[in-house]
Design goal:
about 260 residues; alpha+beta; Outer membrane lipoprotein wza fold like; 2 domains; 4-stranded antiparallel sheet
């Protein structure tokens, strides 16, 4: 009897440790920030435009007006215009650590810190020094959201429209698994040394109305497993160890029981 009691106690202790270790992005004080947003903060999220940063890849196309027809545009840096949906993460020029790209005619130009439209305007201004009426397009090709945890297809989800909402991201990863905790989805944003962590509950409309489902490039979406599934997983991990201990000590426990039986 004592042996069974000790085994149960140790199983609970080891299971608790394993559940804690199984979860990612745990905060020391247990407090998550920015889980709710004011109306003004939400309006800012709606207007957000991603800015070009070092190590981004950008697809730049420059056109000039055809001399025979002022309504036709002739590509200078590319032979054809591709649909955005055909872009791959590795396409385009790499923005250097200095925030610059090197282009024909105008050489190195700094575009880091600018939106796509701002960068296009800045490059058009530079090309205007050499080309009459240039038209420039700029597209960041490596915008993506990282999804991990209890979804059917975790991985990298590309962004083609600047932003994406959480519902669309979940649908692109094949929806939740049966183990997913739908009330405690984490969105990790910014510098991982000091991240902004938002908790989203998709089961209640009132909770959704207090936050924002809009995601930004480079956000990490983490779908945790339900707490009870974590305990079940942890129990499976430690149960073989205690089964071995029980089988080794079983003869000794039986002998002690026999020795302690009363004699009538």
């Amino acid at each position: 009897m004592h042996m069974v009691f000790i085994t149960v106690i140790f199983s609970i202790l080891f299971s608790a440790c394993s559940v804690k270790d199984d979860r990612l992005f745990q905060m020391k004080d247990g407090v998550e920030r920015n889980s709710t947003l004011t109306y003004e903060e939400y309006k800012y999220e709606l207007k957000y435009e991603n800015k070009i940063a070092p190590n981004d890849r950008v697809l730049i196309r420059v056109y000039s007006k055809n001399s025979l027809n002022s309504q036709l545009m002739k590509p200078i840096l590319s032979d054809s215009f591709e649909l955005d949906t055909t872009l791959q993460e590795g396409d385009g020029l790499l923005v250097t650590q200095k925030g610059t790209v090197r282009l024909p005619i105008i050489q190195s130009v700094k575009i880091a810190g600018l939106t796509e439209d701002q960068a296009a305007a800045a490059l058009a201004k530079e090309y205007r020094k050499f080309i009459k009426n240039p038209y420039v397009t700029v597209k960041i090709t490596n915008q993506r959201i990282i999804v991990i945890g209890e979804v059917n297809k975790p991985g990298v989800v590309p962004i083609y429209n600047g932003t994406m909402n959480l519902i669309e991201v979940i649908s692109r990863t094949g929806y939740f698994t049966s183990l997913a905790e739908r009330t405690n989805i984490k969105v990790i944003r910014g510098d991982l040394r000091n991240p902004e962590i938002r908790t989203i509950d998709l089961t209640k409309l009132s909770a959704i109305q207090q936050t924002s489902l809009i995601l930004r490039p480079n956000d990490i979406v983490y779908v945790q497993a339900r707490q009870m599934d974590g305990f079940n997983k942890a129990f499976k991990e430690v149960s073989p160890f205690f089964s071995t201990i029980t089988s080794i000590l079983a003869p000794f426990v039986q002998w002690t029981t026999i020795q302690g039986d009363p004699i009538y």
